[in-house]
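Quick one: co-fold with flavin mononucleotide.
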Amino acid sequence: MRKGIDEDHLTYVEAGLTAQDAGVAAVALHARTAEQRYSGQADWDAIATLKQALDVPVLGNGDIWEGSDALRMVEHTGVDGVVVGRGCLGRPWLFADLEAAFTQGGDYRPVLPALGEVAKIMSRHAQLLVEALEDERHGCADFRKHVAWYLKGFPVGGDLRRSLAMISSLAELDDLLDKLDPAIPFPLESLGQPRGRINAPGKVSLPHGWLDSRDDDTVPEGAETDESGG
Ligand SMILES: Cc1cc2nc3c(=O)[nH]c(=O)nc-3n(C[C@H](O)[C@H](O)[C@H](O)COP(=O)(O)O)c2cc1C
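Sure, here it is.
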């Protein structure tokens, strides 16, 4: 869940308690309001507040880009675990980095693949997408959006980037990946940088009459067609 609709409607503690009473195994909080969308910084103090309020495990979420951020969040909030969203876009090795951080502690060795290893991971990712979608063109088209995330910060020319972002077959992808210099080290300056959505706050659309009465538990019309906003 998020913290609530906006700063005037913070519902996360009450929602957490309600979920706990209903018997959930754990809750996770993305510490922004819906109105904030992905703007500003996640409010890790709110995660600490929720952790204090509940007995079930609490997982913290928001702005974890590296294993070191996860350690800082645990230290700051006392949470039982962390959840990552945008941090793993183009960086599936973030989970290995998190594991290294949690097992080795503060002076852990971050996982920093060179470009050759990143290229191998890209190829494997595209192959798995094609298998999952059971269609090579569709899988390759879906993979295009991942290219910029994978290559963020690496010195790769514009023409090659553009070609990679227009692939329609796995063979084409592998041919292009072969042109990358495998020895280029991981760009340290891209560590800790946000990736994926970073947008401005926005008005939250609520069902008609939603805020009129807290005691009215009528399910709003069309609620089942709701889209997840994360
Ligand atoms: C590609 C992507 C898909 C997501 N899908 C969902 C979703 O289906 N449901 C949900 O509650 N949150 C979803 N989220 C939100 C994340 O779970 C997370 O709360 C949010 O991205 C903030 O964490 P972060 O700072 O680690 O990105 C998604 C995020 C991303 C980047």
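If it helps, The chain has two domains: 12-111+195-205, 115-185.
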